[in-house]
Design brief:
Helices cover 71% and strands 0% of the residues. By secondary structure, the protein is mainly α. The model has no long low-confidence stretch (mean pLDDT 93).
């Protein structure tokens, strides 16, 4: 079911990108938590996933959202590489 995880990460990535471009940071914690859960799900299907979880200890919400965006993009690339 890695395809299901991929679809969820793809949607999350799109939402993050839209919010980042519009400078909306109020959902950042929810996005970070969701990506971390999706990372765990991806690792159940492929243990060699190297993308690391998002830390909520960033300096700002903007930095956390940027981290979610970068890591979700990286995870999509890792899943795609199969």
């Amino acid at each position: 079911m890695l395809g299901h995880v991929y679809n969820d990460v793809e949607v999350l990535n799109r939402l993050c990108r839209e919010d980042y471009e519009q400078k909306r940071y109020y959902r950042v914690e929810s996005y970070a938590n969701e990506l971390n859960q999706l990372l765990e799900s991806a690792r159940q299907y492929r243990t060699e996933i190297i993308t690391t979880p998002v830390s909520l200890n960033a300096v700002s919400s903007e930095e956390t959202l940027k981290d979610v965006l970068l890591k979700s993009t990286r995870l999509l690339q890792e899943i795609d590489a199969e």
